[in-house]
Amino acid sequence: MIVPDFWAEARRQHRAAGRQTTVRRFGWSEHSQADAQAMAERRAEEALQQILAGQPLARRERRVAYNGAEGVPIREEVLARQGASVITRNAYGARCLNTPSALFADIDFTDAPRGRHTPALIALMTLVSVAVGVMAGGRFGVGLWLLSLVGASAVVRGLQRLRVMAGGGHERLALQRIERFLAAHPAWNLRIYRTPGGLRLLATHAPFAATSPEVTAFFDAVGTDPLYARMCRHQRCFRARLSAKPWRVGMGTPLRPRPGVWPVAADRLPPREQWVAAYEHAAAGFAACRFQAALGSGAVHAEIRDVIDLHDREARATGPALALA
Prior knowledge:
The chain has helices at 33-52, 118-136, 138-166, 170-184, 213-222, 226-235, 269-283, 302-314; strands at residues 6-16, 19-29, 77-82, 85-89, 95-99, 104-108, 189-195, 198-203, 238-241, 286-287, 290-296, 323-324. The protein is an alpha+beta fold. It folds into two domains: 6-52, no CATH class; 78-110 and 169-324, no CATH class. The strands form four sheets. It has a four-stranded antiparallel sheet, sandwiched between helices. Helix 2 (118-136) runs antiparallel to helix 3 (138-166). The longest helix has 29 residues, at 138-166. This is Transmembrane protein. Keywords: Membrane, Transmembrane, Transmembrane helix. The chain crosses the membrane at residues 118-136. It comes from Roseateles subflavus.
Protein backbone atom coordinates (compact mmCIF):
# COMPACT_ATOMS: atom_id res chain seq x y z
CA MET A 1 0.00 0.00 0.00
CA ILE A 2 1.30 3.45 -0.97
CA VAL A 3 -0.57 6.67 -0.17
CA PRO A 4 1.69 9.51 -1.37
CA ASP A 5 1.64 13.14 -0.25
CA PHE A 6 3.12 14.43 -3.53
CA TRP A 7 2.05 13.92 -7.15
CA ALA A 8 3.40 14.98 -10.54
CA GLU A 9 2.86 14.24 -14.24
CA ALA A 10 5.38 14.04 -17.08
CA ARG A 11 4.99 13.93 -20.85
CA ARG A 12 7.22 12.36 -23.47
CA GLN A 13 6.83 12.73 -27.24
CA HIS A 14 8.31 10.92 -30.21
CA ARG A 15 7.87 11.88 -33.90
CA ALA A 16 8.79 9.62 -36.80
CA ALA A 17 7.48 9.16 -40.35
CA GLY A 18 4.97 11.95 -39.84
CA ARG A 19 3.45 10.32 -36.74
CA GLN A 20 3.69 11.66 -33.23
CA THR A 21 3.45 9.50 -30.13
CA THR A 22 2.68 11.28 -26.86
CA VAL A 23 2.84 9.49 -23.52
CA ARG A 24 1.90 10.83 -20.10
CA ARG A 25 2.65 9.18 -16.77
CA PHE A 26 2.18 10.08 -13.10
CA GLY A 27 4.84 10.07 -10.43
CA TRP A 28 4.40 10.12 -6.68
CA SER A 29 6.37 10.38 -3.47
CA GLU A 30 5.88 10.39 0.29
CA HIS A 31 8.90 12.71 0.63
CA SER A 32 8.99 15.60 -1.87
CA GLN A 33 7.55 17.12 -5.05
CA ALA A 34 10.95 16.78 -6.71
CA ASP A 35 10.96 13.03 -6.10
CA ALA A 36 7.45 12.77 -7.54
CA GLN A 37 8.49 14.68 -10.67
CA ALA A 38 11.59 12.53 -11.14
CA MET A 39 9.49 9.41 -10.91
CA ALA A 40 6.97 10.78 -13.43
CA GLU A 41 9.77 11.57 -15.90
CA ARG A 42 11.25 8.09 -15.51
CA ARG A 43 7.90 6.31 -15.88
CA ALA A 44 6.97 8.40 -18.94
CA GLU A 45 10.27 7.59 -20.66
CA GLU A 46 9.95 3.88 -19.86
CA ALA A 47 6.37 3.79 -21.15
CA LEU A 48 7.33 5.61 -24.37
CA GLN A 49 10.11 3.14 -25.12
CA GLN A 50 7.79 0.21 -24.45
CA ILE A 51 5.11 1.62 -26.76
CA LEU A 52 7.66 2.28 -29.51
CA ALA A 53 8.78 -1.33 -29.10
CA GLY A 54 5.23 -2.45 -29.86
CA GLN A 55 3.75 -3.03 -26.43
CA PRO A 56 0.00 -2.15 -26.27
CA LEU A 57 0.14 0.27 -23.34
CA ALA A 58 -2.21 3.15 -22.58
CA ARG A 59 -0.84 6.50 -23.72
CA ARG A 60 -2.22 8.24 -20.64
CA GLU A 61 -3.17 7.19 -17.10
CA ARG A 62 -6.58 8.20 -15.79
CA ARG A 63 -6.56 10.75 -12.99
CA VAL A 64 -8.73 9.01 -10.42
CA ALA A 65 -8.73 9.10 -6.65
CA TYR A 66 -9.05 5.41 -5.89
CA ASN A 67 -8.99 2.06 -7.67
CA GLY A 68 -7.29 3.45 -10.74
CA ALA A 69 -4.97 1.50 -12.99
CA GLU A 70 -3.00 -1.16 -11.19
CA GLY A 71 0.37 0.24 -10.18
CA VAL A 72 -1.02 3.70 -9.43
CA PRO A 73 -1.55 4.26 -5.70
CA ILE A 74 -4.39 5.94 -3.83
CA ARG A 75 -4.63 9.58 -4.88
CA GLU A 76 -6.34 11.29 -1.96
CA GLU A 77 -5.45 14.05 0.47
CA VAL A 78 -3.49 12.61 3.39
CA LEU A 79 -4.97 13.84 6.67
CA ALA A 80 -3.01 11.76 9.20
CA ARG A 81 -0.65 8.82 9.54
CA GLN A 82 -0.51 6.38 12.44
CA GLY A 83 2.01 3.61 12.04
CA ALA A 84 1.30 1.93 8.72
CA SER A 85 -2.28 3.26 8.62
CA VAL A 86 -3.22 6.41 6.71
CA ILE A 87 -6.37 8.55 6.99
CA THR A 88 -7.34 10.23 3.73
CA ARG A 89 -10.23 12.30 2.39
CA ASN A 90 -11.93 10.44 -0.43
CA ALA A 91 -13.33 11.79 -3.69
CA TYR A 92 -16.71 12.72 -2.17
CA GLY A 93 -15.26 14.24 1.01
CA ALA A 94 -15.50 11.54 3.70
CA ARG A 95 -12.52 10.51 5.83
CA CYS A 96 -11.26 6.97 5.19
CA LEU A 97 -8.87 4.63 6.95
CA ASN A 98 -6.39 2.81 4.73
CA THR A 99 -4.40 -0.04 6.23
CA PRO A 100 -2.10 -2.60 4.59
CA SER A 101 -2.71 -5.47 6.99
CA ALA A 102 -5.85 -5.00 9.13
CA LEU A 103 -8.50 -7.02 7.31
CA PHE A 104 -11.74 -5.04 6.96
CA ALA A 105 -14.67 -6.42 4.96
CA ASP A 106 -17.92 -4.69 3.95
CA ILE A 107 -21.16 -6.64 3.55
CA ASP A 108 -23.94 -4.70 1.82
CA PHE A 109 -27.58 -5.57 2.41
CA THR A 110 -29.05 -5.60 -1.07
CA ASP A 111 -31.64 -7.51 -3.08
CA ALA A 112 -29.35 -7.52 -6.12
CA PRO A 113 -28.99 -11.13 -7.33
CA ARG A 114 -25.97 -12.91 -5.82
CA GLY A 115 -24.82 -16.45 -5.15
CA ARG A 116 -23.38 -19.32 -7.13
CA HIS A 117 -26.72 -20.19 -8.75
CA THR A 118 -27.48 -16.63 -9.87
CA PRO A 119 -25.52 -16.61 -13.20
CA ALA A 120 -27.23 -19.83 -14.30
CA LEU A 121 -30.66 -18.50 -13.34
CA ILE A 122 -30.10 -15.22 -15.19
CA ALA A 123 -28.87 -17.13 -18.27
CA LEU A 124 -31.94 -19.35 -18.21
CA MET A 125 -34.33 -16.42 -17.91
CA THR A 126 -32.50 -14.61 -20.72
CA LEU A 127 -32.80 -17.62 -23.01
CA VAL A 128 -36.53 -17.79 -22.27
CA SER A 129 -36.91 -14.11 -23.17
CA VAL A 130 -34.97 -14.60 -26.42
CA ALA A 131 -37.16 -17.58 -27.33
CA VAL A 132 -40.29 -15.52 -26.71
CA GLY A 133 -39.00 -12.77 -29.00
CA VAL A 134 -38.02 -15.17 -31.78
CA MET A 135 -41.37 -16.96 -31.72
CA ALA A 136 -43.26 -13.66 -31.85
CA GLY A 137 -41.14 -12.30 -34.73
CA GLY A 138 -41.08 -8.83 -36.30
CA ARG A 139 -41.23 -5.52 -34.49
CA PHE A 140 -43.71 -6.87 -32.01
CA GLY A 141 -41.28 -9.69 -31.30
CA VAL A 142 -38.45 -7.26 -30.54
CA GLY A 143 -40.67 -5.33 -28.14
CA LEU A 144 -41.85 -8.52 -26.49
CA TRP A 145 -38.24 -9.72 -26.21
CA LEU A 146 -37.19 -6.51 -24.45
CA LEU A 147 -40.19 -6.75 -22.14
CA SER A 148 -39.34 -10.38 -21.38
CA LEU A 149 -35.73 -9.46 -20.66
CA VAL A 150 -36.83 -6.82 -18.14
CA GLY A 151 -39.22 -9.36 -16.67
CA ALA A 152 -36.41 -11.92 -16.32
CA SER A 153 -34.38 -9.49 -14.23
CA ALA A 154 -37.41 -8.69 -12.09
CA VAL A 155 -38.08 -12.40 -11.52
CA VAL A 156 -34.49 -13.06 -10.42
CA ARG A 157 -34.59 -10.04 -8.10
CA GLY A 158 -37.95 -11.13 -6.71
CA LEU A 159 -36.66 -14.63 -6.02
CA GLN A 160 -33.67 -13.15 -4.22
CA ARG A 161 -35.99 -11.00 -2.07
CA LEU A 162 -38.09 -14.06 -1.15
CA ARG A 163 -34.95 -15.98 -0.23
CA VAL A 164 -33.81 -13.14 2.06
CA MET A 165 -37.22 -12.93 3.75
CA ALA A 166 -37.37 -16.71 4.25
CA GLY A 167 -33.92 -16.64 5.84
CA GLY A 168 -34.88 -14.03 8.43
CA GLY A 169 -33.59 -10.90 6.68
CA HIS A 170 -30.26 -9.63 5.39
CA GLU A 171 -28.56 -9.32 8.77
CA ARG A 172 -29.55 -12.80 9.94
CA LEU A 173 -28.29 -14.37 6.70
CA ALA A 174 -25.02 -12.42 6.92
CA LEU A 175 -24.48 -13.50 10.52
CA GLN A 176 -25.16 -17.12 9.56
CA ARG A 177 -22.45 -16.93 6.88
CA ILE A 178 -20.05 -15.39 9.41
CA GLU A 179 -20.83 -18.05 12.01
CA ARG A 180 -20.30 -20.86 9.49
CA PHE A 181 -16.94 -19.40 8.53
CA LEU A 182 -15.84 -19.04 12.15
CA ALA A 183 -16.92 -22.61 12.93
CA ALA A 184 -14.60 -23.81 10.16
CA HIS A 185 -11.78 -21.42 11.19
CA PRO A 186 -11.58 -21.49 15.00
CA ALA A 187 -8.42 -19.34 15.17
CA TRP A 188 -10.22 -16.36 13.61
CA ASN A 189 -11.69 -13.47 15.60
CA LEU A 190 -13.99 -10.86 14.07
CA ARG A 191 -15.32 -7.55 15.32
CA ILE A 192 -18.80 -6.93 13.87
CA TYR A 193 -20.01 -3.39 13.18
CA ARG A 194 -23.38 -2.19 11.86
CA THR A 195 -23.18 0.34 9.02
CA PRO A 196 -26.02 2.32 7.41
CA GLY A 197 -26.29 -0.27 4.65
CA GLY A 198 -24.92 -3.50 6.08
CA LEU A 199 -22.11 -4.88 8.22
CA ARG A 200 -18.41 -4.17 8.58
CA LEU A 201 -16.05 -6.90 9.75
CA LEU A 202 -12.57 -6.47 11.21
CA ALA A 203 -10.34 -9.54 11.69
CA THR A 204 -8.24 -9.03 14.83
CA HIS A 205 -6.33 -12.28 15.31
CA ALA A 206 -3.68 -11.74 12.61
CA PRO A 207 -2.47 -9.32 9.92
CA PHE A 208 -3.23 -10.17 6.28
CA ALA A 209 -2.12 -9.23 2.77
CA ALA A 210 -5.01 -8.02 0.62
CA THR A 211 -3.87 -10.15 -2.33
CA SER A 212 -3.63 -13.43 -0.39
CA PRO A 213 -5.86 -16.41 -1.32
CA GLU A 214 -6.91 -16.60 2.33
CA VAL A 215 -8.43 -13.11 2.12
CA THR A 216 -10.18 -13.91 -1.17
CA ALA A 217 -11.69 -17.05 0.38
CA PHE A 218 -12.86 -15.06 3.40
CA PHE A 219 -14.44 -12.37 1.22
CA ASP A 220 -16.31 -15.02 -0.77
CA ALA A 221 -17.45 -16.92 2.32
CA VAL A 222 -18.98 -13.95 4.16
CA GLY A 223 -20.47 -12.26 1.07
CA THR A 224 -18.21 -9.20 0.87
CA ASP A 225 -19.24 -6.50 -1.59
CA PRO A 226 -17.47 -7.52 -4.86
CA LEU A 227 -16.45 -3.94 -5.70
CA TYR A 228 -14.85 -3.53 -2.28
CA ALA A 229 -12.98 -6.83 -2.66
CA ARG A 230 -11.70 -5.84 -6.10
CA MET A 231 -10.48 -2.45 -4.88
CA CYS A 232 -8.65 -4.09 -1.96
CA ARG A 233 -6.75 -6.32 -4.38
CA HIS A 234 -5.94 -3.46 -6.76
CA GLN A 235 -4.67 -1.12 -4.06
CA ARG A 236 -3.15 -3.86 -1.87
CA CYS A 237 -4.82 -2.54 1.24
CA PHE A 238 -8.02 -2.59 3.24
CA ARG A 239 -10.26 0.40 3.71
CA ALA A 240 -12.94 1.64 6.10
CA ARG A 241 -14.95 4.85 5.87
CA LEU A 242 -14.59 6.85 9.10
CA SER A 243 -17.09 9.67 8.61
CA ALA A 244 -20.56 10.14 7.17
CA LYS A 245 -21.43 10.17 3.50
CA PRO A 246 -22.16 13.85 2.75
CA TRP A 247 -25.62 13.31 1.22
CA ARG A 248 -26.72 11.52 4.39
CA VAL A 249 -26.04 14.57 6.57
CA GLY A 250 -27.76 17.18 4.45
CA MET A 251 -24.88 18.38 2.26
CA GLY A 252 -26.72 19.58 -0.81
CA THR A 253 -23.63 20.18 -2.95
CA PRO A 254 -20.75 17.79 -3.70
CA LEU A 255 -17.13 18.33 -2.74
CA ARG A 256 -15.59 21.20 -4.71
CA PRO A 257 -13.85 21.27 -7.10
CA ARG A 258 -15.05 18.20 -8.93
CA PRO A 259 -14.13 15.39 -9.28
CA GLY A 260 -12.39 15.61 -5.91
CA VAL A 261 -9.07 14.14 -7.00
CA TRP A 262 -5.99 15.27 -5.09
CA PRO A 263 -3.97 17.47 -5.39
CA VAL A 264 -6.02 20.59 -6.04
CA ALA A 265 -4.59 23.76 -7.60
CA ALA A 266 -3.91 26.53 -5.08
CA ASP A 267 -6.53 28.86 -6.58
CA ARG A 268 -9.18 26.13 -6.14
CA LEU A 269 -8.37 25.28 -2.54
CA PRO A 270 -10.58 27.94 -0.83
CA PRO A 271 -13.92 26.50 -2.07
CA ARG A 272 -12.74 23.01 -1.13
CA GLU A 273 -11.74 24.11 2.36
CA GLN A 274 -15.05 25.91 2.81
CA TRP A 275 -16.95 22.78 1.77
CA VAL A 276 -14.87 20.56 4.07
CA ALA A 277 -15.52 22.85 7.05
CA ALA A 278 -19.28 22.73 6.42
CA TYR A 279 -19.17 18.97 5.95
CA GLU A 280 -17.21 18.28 9.15
CA HIS A 281 -19.68 20.42 11.10
CA ALA A 282 -22.66 18.53 9.60
CA ALA A 283 -21.05 15.12 10.14
CA ALA A 284 -20.06 15.74 13.76
CA GLY A 285 -23.27 14.26 15.17
CA PHE A 286 -23.13 11.01 13.20
CA ALA A 287 -21.21 7.74 13.29
CA ALA A 288 -19.92 5.76 10.30
CA CYS A 289 -20.64 2.46 12.05
CA ARG A 290 -21.58 0.99 15.44
CA PHE A 291 -19.79 -1.86 17.20
CA GLN A 292 -22.09 -4.83 17.82
CA ALA A 293 -20.06 -7.83 18.95
CA ALA A 294 -16.79 -9.74 18.76
CA LEU A 295 -17.13 -13.33 17.57
CA GLY A 296 -14.57 -16.10 17.42
CA SER A 297 -11.42 -16.95 19.30
CA GLY A 298 -11.09 -13.63 21.14
CA ALA A 299 -7.51 -13.22 19.89
CA VAL A 300 -6.21 -9.70 19.16
CA HIS A 301 -2.85 -9.44 17.40
CA ALA A 302 -0.54 -6.69 18.67
CA GLU A 303 -0.26 -5.19 15.16
CA ILE A 304 -4.04 -4.83 14.91
CA ARG A 305 -4.72 -3.37 18.36
CA ASP A 306 -3.78 0.21 17.40
CA VAL A 307 -5.93 -0.06 14.24
CA ILE A 308 -8.94 -1.06 16.34
CA ASP A 309 -8.47 1.94 18.63
CA LEU A 310 -7.97 4.34 15.71
CA HIS A 311 -10.94 3.00 13.75
CA ASP A 312 -13.38 2.90 16.66
CA ARG A 313 -12.47 6.39 17.82
CA GLU A 314 -12.59 8.07 14.40
CA ALA A 315 -15.70 6.20 13.21
CA ARG A 316 -17.43 6.88 16.58
CA ALA A 317 -18.20 3.17 16.70
CA THR A 318 -18.33 2.97 20.49
CA GLY A 319 -19.58 5.30 23.21
CA PRO A 320 -22.79 7.30 22.80
CA ALA A 321 -25.08 5.74 20.19
CA LEU A 322 -25.12 8.20 17.30
CA ALA A 323 -27.22 7.98 14.17
CA LEU A 324 -25.45 6.10 11.40
CA ALA A 325 -24.60 7.93 8.21
